[in-house]
């Protein structure tokens, strides 16, 4: 694929038309010292179009270092806008968790005693159709890796991570598979699920369910989503699925990153919408 073959796209976000050019993405929407590939640009543009994100106001951008795969980043503000546009959203509470004098306290906001040890963050999201709020607690040890921002304002950062995680759990249909910069490095460290062949990312058949609830990793959730989309697209068999993946994700990492799978899912969902629209036109 060459730059000339990467086409511009146009879509609407909140009534505003977004004209997104591949040159704009490459020159203005990439952070880091790496050079993004055409494939990464296409996946980023497809995700922005499908999720109705406006990268021109910093709602989404790419991070690329060296030869590592690019990561698609979504801002906290984009999460908040998406939540606030949902008629079932009834606000949230958020704060930090710290230990002081051998007691663990969970407080609203991002303030703690000077000598208290910061443990994590928490958030509750309220929905009009739920009796109980969706509550999330996150550990600072899982997200803080000594980066400059985390050293300067760890309380605000862990609170922000808790908010984003809670919003994603509360509204999985509109916020699923989107990650902020604070989460990106952690998400990319999740191990791939035992591929038997090189670049084989075709989802395996779901295992039999046990009585014990299993918490899936983002990678496993992405693969389950792909399995569902393959069924809706009428694509059956490992060979047919592999051909579809190779066509739309030709230069995948080994193993593929969460961001690559997210981009592929966006392509699959757009493909499904096009097919459904075509079928509807045929019936008229």
UniProtKB/TrEMBL annotation:
<dbReference type="GO" id="GO:0003677">
    <property type="term" value="F:DNA binding"/>
</dbReference>
<protein>
    <submittedName>
        <fullName>RecT family protein</fullName>
    </submittedName>
</protein>
<dbReference type="GO" id="GO:0006310">
    <property type="term" value="P:DNA recombination"/>
</dbReference>
<dbReference type="InterPro" id="IPR018330">
    <property type="entry name" value="RecT_fam"/>
</dbReference>
<dbReference type="Pfam" id="PF03837">
    <property type="entry name" value="RecT"/>
</dbReference>
<dbReference type="InterPro" id="IPR010183">
    <property type="entry name" value="Phage_lambda_Bet"/>
</dbReference>
<feature type="region of interest" description="Disordered">
    <location>
        <begin position="182"/>
        <end position="214"/>
    </location>
</feature>
